[in-house]
Amino acid sequence: MTVFSSIGAAKTRRMGRIFAPDGKSVFAAVDHAAYISPSPPLGRTMLDIAEGGPDGVLATWHIAREYADAFARTGLVLRVDGGTTELGGFPEGDVSTLLYQVEDAVRIGADCIVLLVFTGQHDEHLSLSRLGKVVREAEQYGLPVMAEVIPGGWGRAVEWNIENVALGARIAAEFGADIVKTVSPTAPEEFARVVDACPVPVVALGGPKTDSEDDVVALAAGVTAAGAAGVAFGRNVWGSPDPAALIRRLSQAVHG
Predict the structure, then answer these.
(1) For tag attachment on the chain, is the N or C end more exposed, with fewer CB atoms within 10 Å?
(2) Considering the domain boundaries, does residue 32 fall inside one?
(3) Is 80 exceeded by the pLDDT of residue 36?
(4) Is residue 13 part of a domain?
(5) What is the pTM of this model?
């Protein structure tokens, strides 16, 4: 039996704009300025990132509109949650909220939306409820949803071990996420257990700035070899003295 779906077709097309034909992606994450510092520099750095040719960019509303020309040929993943900053210190619980609706994301030309999910945190029901709400609305437009899963939240209420990372990824997929972005274990090869546990593409986030770009590229190669659908790196990309060159190296590591 063959079933045709306009919503399914829309989602397929949008996934094809953020993932290469090999099913993998290098995402440049430049959505930090809405809540933490240091933040991605504007101007030349953004243009250099675009020049490097990432498959997708995770962006705030402002970056999505200011750099529309620069990222016109790059898949746009819009950050739709937030509402808290590090000024005065992050709260222990989840005080985030949805800042933009799915219609807003479609209006600005997003190919996907991303929001945080804190599995294992004492108030995990808040972020999981947001995920369910967004998935339900996004499905009406054929708009993919990326869940950024942080087990235990930023305070690490649960350990970031492979079991908790894998379970968090699976939970997000069960709630309807089309893509999961999550932390990488210390040994990149262990990411295979996360991939095996999760029925949707999983990409590894980059974490804090490191001193060696060789280590950044090695991480990308390692998790990809373990089955990851790519990486979503932020501080190590926009903090690089040559973001374009680093993105090209990451693309080689991920796509071969």
Answers:
(1) N
(2) yes
(3) no
(4) no
(5) 0.96
